[in-house]
C-alpha cells in the first residue's frame, strides 16, 4: 500500500519542463502542474475528512435527544439502524478518508514533490554561467535550492487541508446551528468576522517577516560556507577573529529577524486564545438561554457546545497553517531570486557538436572586458597551429586566465570570434566544446568524492 502511493510520482523523472518563470503564481504552477492529479485528490480527501468531522457533534446531539426522549428498552428496536449508520461513519468512513488523506500527503506528495522541485531547480541552476556562481555565495545558492521545494509543497498542502477544513467545518456548523435556532449562529458569525480580521492583520506581516528572515538565514549560511570553503586561506593568514566577526554579524542580524517574527507569533496566539474563549462562552450562554425558554431541545445544546469546541480546537491549527502558507511564500520568493533566473550563457537553438580533427585554434579580433568600456583583451588576433605549444606571459590581471576562460566559453565575447578547426565556438554546444579541451588548473581543488571519481 505504501509503495503504491510512493510510486505515483518520480522525483528525478522530469527535467525538460522549461525555465522556472519569475512570477510567483507562475513559479508555483510550473512545479504544481506536474503533480496536479495528486493535489486534486488531496483536495477531495480533505473535503471528505472535514465533512465527516462535522458529523461528530451532530451525532452527539442526536444521541442526547434519543436518550432523553426514548425508553431504554425501545432504543435499539426503534433506532437501531440510525445508530448503526453513525457507527459506520465513525468507525469505517472517517478513518478511511483520513487514511487516504495521510497517504496522499505523506507517501505520495511529501518526499516526491519536494525533491522533484529540488532536482529541477538544481538542474536549472547548475547550468548557469560561471559568472553566476562567482557573484553569489555557494552556500546561499544551495540553501535556496534546498528550501524552495519543501516551502512550495508545505504551502500547497496547508492550503488544501487546513483552509479547506475550516471553511467546511465553519460553514457546516453555521448552517446546522442556524437551522436549530438563528440565534445560535450569531456567536459563530461574529467569531468568523473577528478571525478573518486577525488573520488579515497578522498574516501579511508574518509573510514579509518570513521573507526577510529567509534572506538573513541564506546570508548566514553563505558566510559560514564561504569560511569553510576557504579555510586554508583563513588559517594561513591568521584571521580567525575577523572571520568570527564576519559570521557574528550575520548571526546577530538573523537573531533580530527571528525575534520580530516570534513577537508576531506570540501576539497571534494571545488574540486567538481570547477570541476562542469568547466564542465558547457566548455559544454556551445563547444555547442555555434558548433551552431555558424552551426554544431548543437539550440535544441542540449538546450539539452546539462540542461543535464550538471543535471549531476552537481547529482554529489554532488553521491559523498556524495559514501562517505557514505565507511564511513559505516568503521562502519561495527568496528562493526565486536564484532559481527563477534565465540562463545568460546558452547554446544556440541549432548548435552543432564540435568535431576536432587537427586542433587549430584562432582568436579573431577578440575583445572582452567584463562589461567595462576599457577591455582586458582588446582586438586580439592569435593563431595556434595544431601541436604548437604557446606560453602566455604577463602581469597579474593582464588577461591570461581570461583568454583561457574565453576559449572554454565561460563568457561570451563582446567582439570577434574564436575558431577551432574553423568552427566558431559560439555556434557549438558548450558540453562538446569543453569535452575536447583538457585543463590543468592552478587550484588544487577536489570534489568530495573518491580519488577514482576525481580522476575520471
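Sequence proposed for the structure above (456 residues):
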Amino acid at each position: 500500500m505504501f509503495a503504491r502511493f510512493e510510486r505515483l510520482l518520480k522525483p528525478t523523472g522530469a527535467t525538460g519542463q522549461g525555465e522556472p518563470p519569475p512570477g510567483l503564481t507562475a513559479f508555483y504552477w510550473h512545479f504544481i502542474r506536474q503533480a496536479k492529479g495528486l493535489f486534486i485528490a488531496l483536495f477531495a480527501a480533505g473535503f471528505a475528512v472535514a465533512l465527516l468531522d462535522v458529523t461528530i457533534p451532530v451525532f452527539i446531539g442526536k444521541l442526547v435527544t434519543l436518550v432523553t426522549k426514548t425508553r431504554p428498552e425501545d432504543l435499539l428496536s426503534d433506532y437501531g439502524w440510525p445508530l448503526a449508520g453513525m457507527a459506520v461513519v465513525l468507525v469505517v468512513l472517517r478513518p478511511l478518508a483520513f487514511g487516504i488523506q495521510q497517504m496522499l500527503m505523506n507517501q505520495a506528495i511529501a518526499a516526491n514533490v519536494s525533491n522533484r522541485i529540488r532536482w529541477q531547480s538544481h538542474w536549472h541552476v547548475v547550468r548557469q554561467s560561471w559568472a553566476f556562481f562567482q557573484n553569489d555565495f555557494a552556500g546561499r545558492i544551495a540553501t535556496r535550492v534546498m528550501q524552495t521545494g519543501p516551502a512550495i509543497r508545505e504551502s500547497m498542502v496547508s492550503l488544501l487541508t487546513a483552509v479547506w477544513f475550516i471553511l467546511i467545518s465553519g460553514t457546516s456548523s453555521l448552517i446546522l446551528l442556524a437551522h436549530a435556532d438563528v440565534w445560535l449562529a450569531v456567536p459563530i458569525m461574529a467569531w468568523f468576522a473577528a478571525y478573518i480580521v486577525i488573520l488579515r492583520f497578522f498574516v501579511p506581516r508574518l509573510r514579509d517577516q518570513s521573507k526577510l528572515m529567509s534572506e538573513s538565514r541564506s546570508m548566514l549560511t553563505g558566510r559560514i560556507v564561504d569560511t569553510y570553503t576557504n579555510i586554508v586561506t583563513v588559517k594561513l593568514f591568521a584571521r580567525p577573529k575577523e572571520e568570527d566577526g564576519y559570521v557574528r554579524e550575520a548571526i546577530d542580524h538573523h537573531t533580530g529577524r527571528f525575534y520580530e517574527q516570534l513577537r508576531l507569533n506570540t501576539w497571534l496566539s494571545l488574540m486567538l486564545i481570547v477570541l476562542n474563549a469568547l466564542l465558547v462562552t457566548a455559544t454556551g450562554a445563547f444555547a442555555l438561554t434558548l433551552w431555558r425558554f424552551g426554544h431548543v431541545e437539550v440535544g441542540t445544546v449538546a450539539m452546539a457546545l462540542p461543535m464550538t469546541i471543535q471549531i476552537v480546537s481547529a482554529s489554532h491549527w488553521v491559523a498556524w497553517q495559514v501562517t505557514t502558507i505565507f511564511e513559505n511564500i516568503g521562502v519561495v520568493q527568496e528562493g526565486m531570486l536564484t532559481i527563477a533566473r534565465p540562463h545568460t550563457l546558452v547554446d544556440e537553438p541549432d548548435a552543432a557538436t564540435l568535431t576536432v580533427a587537427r586542433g587549430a585554434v584562432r582568436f579573431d579580433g577578440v575583445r572582452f572586458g567584463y562589461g567595462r568600456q576599457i577591455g582586458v583583451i582588446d582586438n586580439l588576433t592569435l593563431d595556434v597551429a595544431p601541436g604548437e605549444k604557446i606560453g602566455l606571459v604577463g602581469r597579474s590581471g593582464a588577461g591570461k586566465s581570461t583568454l583561457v576562460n574565453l576559449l572554454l566559453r565561460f563568457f561570451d565575447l563582446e567582439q570577434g570570434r574564436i575558431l577551432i578547426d574553423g568552427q566558431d565556438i559560439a555556434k557549438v554546444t558548450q558540453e562538446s566544446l569543453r569535452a575536447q579541451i583538457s585543463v590543468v588548473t592552478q587550484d588544487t581543488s577536489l570534489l568530495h568524492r573518491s580519488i577514482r571519481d576525481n580522476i575520471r
